[in-house]
Design a protein that fits this description.
globular, 2 domains, 15% strand, Alpha/beta knot, alpha/beta, 207 residues, 6 helices
Length: 207
């Protein structure tokens, strides 16, 4: 039996051709695995294939992320999750591949999500369910955005806030044609992602 069918190969190529290699999400000390799973599903939906997790809380430092996290309905196996246990190390790694870090924190200098350009090379950072982003991570942000809300409480669940934000990023990117290209095996990022997906598929079929 073939380990990779023609249909699966075409799916991989289509998904990879839509991948936004210049967009990512940073999650800082997000406790609830269901929230992380929901974030992963939203990222997958808009073509974000790598997320950064910064766990500095004592009870989170040793946790591991499995590629078959039930809360992400299996999508997590197709998303790279890169974990750090210090803000400095996490930011340093992000800065190597992304030009800007945009925080999501309500303060006097925050601008509307819909006024911020998220179509370029950007990492969007989210804090945890209780305290939000730490001051340490905020200090590394190049901009800070809020989601305009008209209700009594100016607060959204982390996974909902992430979904709203990354889909706005996707809208901006769609308008600039960043999802329009076909799969290109000569592109180093796309070729590497294709090889990775073939390996994941092969390992799953051989189990």
């Amino acid at each position: 039996m073939a380990l990779l069918t023609e249909a699966r190969e075409e799916l991989f190529k289509r998904v990879i051709s839509k991948t936004q290699f210049d967009c990512t999400v940073i999650l800082e000390n997000v406790h609830d695995p269901h929230n992380i799973g929901a974030v992963i599903r939203s990222c997958d939906a808009v073509g974000i294939r790598k997320i950064y997790v910064i766990d500095t809380h004592e009870n989170l430092i040793d946790r591991e992320f499995k590629k078959d996290m039930s809360t992400s309905t299996g999508v997590s196996r197709w998303i790279d999750i890169v974990k750090f246990t210090s803000v400095e190390d996490g930011v340093s790694a992000v800065r190597k591949d992304f030009n800007r870090i945009v925080g999501t924190h309500l303060d006097a200098e925050s601008v509307s999500l819909y006024e911020e350009d998220l179509s370029g090379s950007v990492a969007i950072a989210f804090g945890n369910e209780h305290q939000g982003m730490t001051e340490e991570l905020l200090a590394h942000c190049d901009a800070n955005i809020i989601i305009p809300q008209m209700g009594m409480v100016q607060s959204l669940n982390i996974s909902v806030a992430c979904a709203v934000t990354v889909f706005e990023a996707a809208r901006q990117r769609l308008s600039k044609g960043k999802y329009d290209g076909d799969f290109n095996s000569a592109d180093a990022n796309q070729a590497a992602k294709y090889d990775q997906y073939v390996q994941i598929q092969t390992e799953r079929r051989l189990k």
